[in-house]
Design a protein that fits this description.
The chain has one domain: Metal-dependent hydrolases (TIM Barrel), CATH 3.20.20. β6, α10 and β7 form a beta-alpha-beta unit. α1 packs across α13, α4 runs parallel beside α6 and α14 runs antiparallel to α15. It starts with 5 loop residues before the first helix and ends with a helix. The model has no long low-confidence stretch (mean pLDDT about 100). About 50% of the residues lie in helices and about 15% in strands. The relative contact order is 0.15. With about 350 residues, the protein is α/β, with parallel strands linked by helices. It has an eight-stranded parallel β-sheet with strand order 1-2-3-4-5-6-7-8. The protein is built from 15 helices and eight strands. Adenine binds next to α3 and α11.
Length: about 350
Amino acid sequence: MKSMNVDDALRKMPKTELHLHLEGAVDVYTFAELAKKHGVALPEHNDPAELYQYDSLVDFLVMYSAVSHAVRDHGDFQRVTYECLQRCSNSGARYVELFFSPESHLEIGVDYPTMLAGVLQGVTDAQTDFGLITNLVPAINRELGGARSVEFVQMVQDHREDRVIGVGLDFNEAGFPPENYVEAFELAAKVGLHRTSHAGEVGPAANVGNSIDLLDCERVDHGYNIVDDPAIVAACVASQIGFTVCPTTTTYTSAFRDLAAPDHAIRQMADAGLNLNINSDDPAMFTSDLADEFSIVHHTMGFTLAEMKQFALNGIDAAWIDDSTKAQWRADWSTEIDALFNEVS
Ligand code: ADE
Ligand code: ZN
């Protein structure tokens, strides 16, 4: 007998989450509480939920910084990490590579070892309580420039922990192209850190190509504007490099605001044969979670359940884990997903 609602199956199905920012996952009521605790002034509001509203990347990043400034001590970092990972687990995530934004805390005087220790404690607690495996990816704030990005990677290396497995590059692409960060990414590669970059979200397709060719990125975050350049699309189809796409984010920050449109970038990227996995980016700040993103891709964007399964397996391919774990998860998750979808009425 068929008994399961499709959204329940999409929520339960095992998934990776490879593009998730800790600070963008801070629940708005937690934000309000931490802001009060630390005496951080908030913009005028009736209900804190009103604070998470913006309609461009720039506006969003202003609020993202405000949220970051309310997360200050070891207990704050532990709490927001644990809450973030609890929601991941409730979305069916089994493996997370979690970005965090050290610069957004350093700029108000929080030191890196304090934030890292708090985040690691939250990760350990979440693994104990939910069995969720998480690795960490400190992200370079590109707006601080190339010279600072080298110092940043050196700082990450000086405080290296096993769970710190890579670096990202985020904040506003406009005016801050990948070519500025070659030295930082070379240093990251030299010390054995994996590499990824936000590209083609609000910047040109060339930023996708240059993130791969100049920064030696092993995957690309977002990537939407790649659809403007067939040659870069063809190269990425050939290499099958992974793209961590984030459907709801596109409606806030990108040129592709209508998820149902047949020419939405994610639809075009999939149809071109690019290797996509689905992620939530800033789930609290965009009022979503990983399972919601899977539901949107199925219901609003019209991808089939077979395609949803493939997106989940693509996440395993793009993850920074060893090949034998990948093979095991591919086999196990495939069986689990087939059984779940078989139950869908
Ligand atoms: N930091 C958090 N979310 C981001 C996004 N969508 N683009 C750039 N930087 C970010
Ligand atoms: Zn992002």
